[in-house]
Write a structure and sequence with these properties.
Shape: globular
Largest sheet: 13 strands, mixed
Number of helices: 5
Number of strands: 23
Distance between the termini: 28 Å
Length: about 350
């Protein structure tokens, strides 16, 4: 992968001689990236003192990421210094833009509108005020809701509307340029079925992975969820008592969703949380050898792939898994390796 710093128009400033290059991509979340650059790097002045952006290109030179440098932290020791640079993609801007800005307290109401139409309308309104750098892309036909937004962050809107079952998963899609074209896709499901073509195998089969990690976590378990709508007076709930019995404990959570006034949507949100969070989650991180599956070329976020792990003669995983996230990390040679985070399908 190639990291390139640019100005605000996407014009290349060059490739920093940075160490510790990293990036993280997840379904329906802003992507992040970072690297460390020495103070004697030719690009240090632009990075430390100017408004700069970061592009990341994949192995096929396709643009995977473009976003602002959010922070840079300089540290010195001895006779030298270096700066840690942190970046986020343009969805980060949605957290600093509000919809339903209405001093009268009425807000912006949508009645029985598809969730994709709501996001498209709100994003267009934000861009009319001041461009976010993101326009609407592909929108699948999805469920309709009735809701009102009053002083609500755009990122919260996109996240909440995509949460119920039958709604969308979202991603930013890039077309390189100066500046790049960045589009927000709202799709019924990201990815395609590549289980017959893409294999991550440790200790068996293709043996194309040199390491793996398996995490089984009860963090954020929820067998009983309440969703609180407008004024905390509109309440919906979803319970999985069988899961609570199996876990021998009840795990509760409350979702504060003050902008939602329709019980059906609150019901859907509560049910979606219980469906995903009522059982411990297993996550497999696979580190491929060079020559193994390549992120952005052989597989993408949301794809179904085949994951097989045999360790000490014991089968740890064997079957289809979904690519829920990808971490880009430097290897011992300073080259970057994409490590997918897989969840059994």
């Amino acid at each position: 992968m190639k990291f390139v710093t640019t100005n605000l128009d996407g014009v290349s400033l060059g490739m920093p001689r940075g160490s510790g290059r990293s990036a993280s991509f997840d379904i329906s979340r802003p992507a992040t990236a970072g690297f460390r650059v020495r103070s004697d790097d030719p690009l240090w002045d632009e990075i430390a003192d100017e408004e700069t952006m970061l592009k990341i290109y994949g192995e096929d030179d396709a643009l995977l990421y473009w976003g602002p440098v959010v922070s840079d932290e300089e540290n010195g020791s001895g006779q030298g210094s270096s700066t840690q640079v942190s970046s986020s993609d343009l969805a980060w801007r949605f957290a600093a833009r509000y919809v339903g800005k209405d001093p009268s307290g009425v807000g912006t109401k949508f009645t029985a509108q598809p969730v994709g139409t709501i996001v498209s309308t709100l994003l267009a309104a934000l861009n009319a005020e001041d461009p976010t750098g993101v326009t609407i892309g592909t929108v699948d036909p999805l469920l309709s809701v009735t809701t009102t937004y009053l002083w609500k962050r755009m990122l919260d809107v996109v996240t909440e509307l995509g949460a119920p079952a039958g709604s969308y998963e979202w991603q930013l899609r890039y077309t390189d340029g100066t500046p790049p074209v960045v589009q927000l896709d709202l799709l019924a499901a990201l990815g395609t079925d590549r289980t017959s073509a893409v294999f991550f195998e440790y200790g068996c089969g293709k043996r194309n992975c040199k390491a793996y990690s398996r995490v089984r976590t009860r963090d954020r378990l929820a067998t009983h969820v309440w969703a609180l709508g407008s004024g905390s007076t509109i309440v919906a709930s979803a319970f999985d008592t069988a899961a609570a019995d199996e876990l021998r404990s009840r795990y509760e959570d409350v979702l504060a969703l003050g902008g939602i006034t329709v019980v059906a949507l609150l019901d859907a949100l509560a049910a979606a949380h219980v469906a995903v969070r009522s059982q411990p989650r297993r996550i497999y991180s696979m580190t491929p050898f060079r020559g193994g599956p390549v992120f952005g070329v052989d597989y993408k976020l949301g794809d179904l792939v085949t994951c097989r792990i045999v360790s000490e003669g014991s089968v740890r995983a064997n079957g289809a898994a979904r690519v829920w996230g990808v971490s880009v990390e430097p290897d011992d040679l300073g080259l970057v390796t994409a490590i997918p985070r897989l969840v059994p399908a």
